[in-house]
Amino acid sequence: MKKILQLAVVALLLIAATTTASAQKFGYVNSAAILAEMAEMKAAESNLEGLQKQLQKKGQAMVQTFQADVKKLQDQAAAGDLTPKQQQEESAKLEARQQEIGKFEQSMVTDLQTKRTELLEPIYEKVNAAIKAVAEAEGYQFIFDQQVLLYGQEASDVSAAVKAKLGM
């Protein structure tokens, strides 16, 4: 009698576990495609590209001026127009300018990264909020990104609902 009761309890637990597992709802979204279609993303990328070109142009101008000054110093030294002391002083000035160019390049990378974060963070937050709203409205416990998904049924793709939530 105890064995039958134990089997019945185990059977009930298995049924409850199966019901609970099947009640969970999973979905996935293609966030890269959604981001690529967003007008805000295109504007941000354009803004970043413009800033990058502007900074690169400034850096190239600094390098060209530096190279011209190096050539001028070499020509003057070859012609004997400078004393050894003057050559040393001019070389020191050029080395300092070369370091300035290196610092500018480093700050350029940092500035671009900062601007990228500043422009893209609100867009990412907007998409995440839309995903969360769709999940809550449609009863999803989990929504995964398609890029990390190994397999998913088309019916589980909630990208269209997220796009609709974003007004796309």
Taking the alpha carbons of the first and last residues, their distance comes to 63 Å
Number of distinct helices: 5
Helix content: over 70%
Sheet with most strands: strand arrangement: 1-2
Which structural category fits the helices and strands?
mainly alpha
Order of helices and strands: HEHHHEH
**Total beta-strand segments:** 2
Please give the radius of gyration in angstroms: 31 Å
Oligomerization state: single chain
Percent strand: under 5%
Q: Poorly predicted ranges (pLDDT <50, ≥5 residues)?
A: 7-14
Q: Mean pLDDT, as a whole number?
A: 86
Q: Mind describing the biggest β-sheet?
A: 2 strands, parallel
Structure notes:
- This protein is mostly helical and 168 residues long.
- 79% of the residues lie in helices and 5% in strands.
- The protein contains five helices and two strands; from the N terminus they run αβαααβα.
- The protein has a two-stranded parallel ribbon.
- About 5% of the residues have low confidence.
Give a quick precis of the structure.
By secondary structure, the chain is mostly helical.
What tags apply to this protein structure?
single chain; rod-shaped; two-stranded parallel ribbon; 5% strand; mainly alpha; 168 residues; 2 strands
